[in-house]
Amino acid sequence: MTPTPTSKTHILLFCLLTSLFSAIRATFNLTLPHQHPNPESVVQEVQRRLNVSIYRREMSDTTGAGCLTGNPIDDCWRCDPNWSNKRQRLADCAIGFGKSALGGKNGQIYVITDSSDHDVVNPSPGTLRHAVLQTEPLWIVFSSNMLINLKHELIVNSFKTIDGRGANVAVTGGGCITLQYVSNVIIHNIRVFDCKPSGNTNIRSSPTHVGWRGRSDGDGISISGSRNIWIDHCSLSHCTDGLIDAVLGSTAITISNSYFTRHNEVMLMGHDDGYMPDKGMQVTFAFNHFGKGLIQRMPRCRHGYFHVVNNDFTEWKMYAIGGSADPTINSQGNRYIAPPDANSKEVTKRVDTDEGNWSGWNWRTDGDIMVNGAFFVPSGDGMSAIYAKASSYEPKSAALVTQLTKYAGVFGGPRDDDGSGPFANGQITGDSASRNTGGGGGGGSEDGDYFGMIFGGGTVAISPPLTTIFFIIFVLYMTTTTRNGGLL
After folding, report:
1. pLDDT tens digit string along 323-333?
2. Helix (H, G, I), strand (E, B) or coil at 94
3. Compositional bias (Polar residues) at which positions (predicted)?
4. Which of 89, 344, 425, 466 has the most CB atoms around it within 10 Å of its CB?
5. What's the predicted TM-score (pTM) here?
6. What residues act catalytically?
């Protein structure tokens, strides 16, 4: 039978829709290939690890051992007097969503002997820049105390551990640390401060690739399109944009035992409200100290699942935890100390959203201690279609927060940035004054050209805009109903 014009058009429409199916599915995709299918099981595992560590500490108190703190990360390695000869044991100590971050485990030890950063295209061997751009797994350590003043962004390749234990290591200057489309990175015991925008230049990101970078935002640590990331025992302060920002579908992240001071917009999680891949973002915040001079975003979340457990929030000027675009926020066993301002007592903030829209968002407080009039506004009355309900698994008492966060930040570092550090002076910063048009991070909706960047071996593919897809479907539909199915 000879096909009619109508049947030909239907066949053409079917073929086109089939070819566009993957793009349409990607546009509405609510998961990432590396997100955990059951975030509540991750929450339970964190609590189990914490319970075991607390029990062991209590038992050690009766025996006089005295080393254990109850912090499951620290107790995993610090009590070994020979830890410096077993550095890579650290990779087995993470908890939460970033637990699987390998860093440079099983790789060679790379010793940084040169604190300079003179050439970002051809860095000298022995510099931090030369180490982090290599393709093989590396465990990076430092030969002595160092202040590394970066000329431009430090672009870190996959399977790297930057381990500052045993030295006083600080990173400042242009950039600063960029994790873009990479995986398995651990950053441990590093001070990051006074990071400023830089760029509009060529920067090497691997032994075989040099690329043009637009102007960076001046984040302390920028995470874009990356997974299996663990930031532990870092001290961050006074950068131009965020202290830690994670955007563009990043997931499987743990930020733990870190110390934040002197900053406005502390942490941004999620690129913008319309960026659907961030629905797969999963981040654990554990045993961190939020100290003097902080204003907001501890963190500020979009989409995703965020477990905030046993942190110490000692200061904020506007709010502590904020969000938009229906994130799940599970707050357990934290201490929130409100500021004196009667208008800033609320821990939470739904950003630019009416109550009618956020009332169903899944925000839970469980076992938190509220001090000086602090209050957390919960929401959500059931399980969403995307995420399991924020759980009420029993958290450890927030009364233990002081002990669990006792060593937050770099070991031996200053408390509350009281002026003993070189980054104590200057205005509190954080408002984004620029955007990285080279695809580096940032997280503002103004960024329009982050697609298709290739750095460190990663890519992001463009999906056709919804308007284009619907327009094509509409045109084809019209051809099937016009002139008895004949093509116009």
Report:
1. 999 999 999 99
2. coil
3. 426-436
4. 344
5. 0.80
6. 297
